[in-house]
Design brief:
By secondary structure, the chain is an alpha+beta fold. The chain is built from five helices and ten strands; from the N terminus they run αβαβββαβαβββαββ. It is globular, with a radius of gyration of 15 Å.
Length: about 160
Amino acid sequence: MADEVVKDADGVGHGRFLADAAARGLQVDIVQRPAAKSLEEAAAILGITPADIVKSLVVKHKDGSFLFALIPGDRQISWPKLRTLVGVNKLSLPPADAALDATGYERGTITPLGSTKSWPVYADSTVTGRRISMGAGAHGYSAFVDADALTAALGAVVADISDPA
């Protein structure tokens, strides 16, 4: 794992992340890390497996609203499973500018914690029962958190919404 645990940072997104986690009583450990060129490289930097890095994907409904899908790094979103669970026939990944508008976070930093708008959260069932790493609201930072505490704090719907990558 990266050596330096960061208690505070200047980034606005990072501050929102930390404030929201604290407000929810969620214990997160933040580490500063160098940029990675791939999921595998990021996992190696953090001393974990790609499966332990959870991607926070912003998903757009055809009605213009959004949701978060939390998917382990070694898996991909299953569109049929997620559409069935949500009860819609169309979902998509929005362009980067729409994701930024919906969350206040740039791609690569997106997390439900501290999002400028509160959207429903759906977590893949393979996320639970372990400690995971996820984006922390700013480039160069990762957060470590207990997945069960995270899904409970977010009121996430936990279900099978992914397939092997």
